[in-house]
Amino acid sequence: MTVEQPAYTLEKAEQTGSGVRDTWVIIPMFNEESVIGDVVAQVLTAFDQVVCVDDGSTDRSAALAAHAGARVVRHPLNLGQGAALQTGFEYALADPSMQYIVTFDADGQHQIADAVGMVERLKAGEADVVFGSRFLDERSKPSFAKAMVLRAAVGYTNFTTHTRLTDAHNGLRAIRRPVLEKLDITQNGMAHASELVAQIGALKASYVEHPVHILYTDYSKAKGQSLWNSINILADLILR
Amino acid sequence: MKIVLIQLVLIVVVVITAVRLLRDRGARTQAVRRLGLLLFAAFAVWSILFPTIWNHIARLVGVGRGTDMVLYALVVAFLSFTLTTYVRFRELETRYTKLARRLALDEAGPPQLAQAGPPQQESPHAGS
Questions:
Q1: What is the pLDDT of residues B10-27, one digit of tens each?
Q2: Which of the residues A14, A61, A91 would you substitute to probe the B interface, choosing the one with the greatest number of B C-beta atoms within 10 Å?
Q3: Could you tell me which of B59, B56, B53, B49 has the C-alpha nearest to residue B15?
Q4: Are the CB atoms for A174 and A117 separated by under 8 Å?
Q5: At CB < 8 A and 24+ separation, what contacts does A178-181 make?
Q6: Which listed site, A41, A133, A152, A229, has its alpha carbon 20 to 30 Å from A48?
Q7: Looking at beta carbons, which residues of chain A come within 8 Å of B110?
Q8: What's the complex ipTM?
């Protein structure tokens, strides 16, 4: 099963975005057909290069993402979000002019402005990695239970890795190429977020956190992690 | 010594299991595991023929009865089986993930815009 790739030429890239093609936005997606087109279109207003890693969707996500102007890499079967991210990393690394990548969630909960701000901080040389954090200001409004679980998760991550973060399971991150080259996500499931932080901590790469606004729409809430899954994530991390 | 039917059945099952496990997969590193398995099978046959051996062992390690001893041994064996199975599944998962990723990346073609263009366009009705 192949996907119609857009006739994606230099010409088109110059029409949108900044014109400098050193950044790839990586969007892992799984059955997001109702939102993915809009999300890709939005991202393309600020970035030139978007790759959607379709994790074996059974709906029209891949076709819609390609139609919206994203490059699409399709897993032949569903592997998990962590696997999709790593695929996106390797795709971006195959582009020699890539210097920065942004990981972006497909469900539309992230803001383009936040992603742009994070890449700017990378370009300013502030750090090798910029993590998005919804807990640096009061804009994001997770439910009480979700906030508690996220705090516990980041507590565990900080405890087991050499990092000090306020939000470990945030899908918005910006990473410089030299760090990306050394990352190898093996946790296919949701535990990849902690694994990523752990690897960055082990690399002794410099990192900063950037305040981001997570928009909790009904859609993103329905697609998001059930709180029960945090137990599974913990088990994955301990039994790795 | 009189052999009861249950003893016959158990011995046959143990021997068949051992032989099957020994035949499956081949790697030098598993030699130790196989030797262990042989010993285990031999001991299993032995303990089927002379069940009282479990009572001796139990008394030796301070457990009341032989049946309790068997139960404890089973719990430990099952736990280790669960763990090794988990590890093996993780390895398998890692392998097919790499395979699927290679396929996906090859199908998508190179990311550079210069060489891009539409890599595959024969099937515009993707999805279903």
A1: 788 778 777 766 665 656
A2: A91
A3: B49
A4: no
A5: A178/A128, A179/A128, A179/A129, A179/A203, A179/A205, A180/A89, A180/A92, A180/A93, A180/A101, A181/A93
A6: A133
A7: 94-95
A8: 0.78
B→A contacts (Cβ < 8 Å), by residue, are 86, 90, 93-94, 97, 100-101, 103-105, 107-114, 116-128
- Answer yes or no: are the C-beta atoms of A12 and A88 closer than 8 Å: no
Q: Which helix (H) or strand (E) holds A102?
A: strand A100-103
Q: Chain B interface, mutation test: which of A1, A2, A95, A183, most B Cβ atoms within 10 Å? A: A2
Domain-located, residue A6: no
| Digit-coded pLDDT (tens) for A177-204 | 999 999 999 988 878 888 899 899 889 9
In a domain, residue A5? The reply is: no
The CATH number that applies at residue A113 is 3.90.550.10
User: Does residue A3 belong to any structural domain of this protein?
Assistant: no
Contact A73, A51 (CB under 8 A): yes
Chain B residue with CA closest to A92: the answer is: B111
Grouping H, G, I as helix, E, B as strand and the rest as coil, residue A68 is helix
Domain membership of residue A8 (yes or no) is no
Range of the domain at A40: 15-238
Domain count, chain A: 1
Give me the pLDDT at residue B28, please.
58
Distance from CA of B8 to the nearest CA of A (A): 40
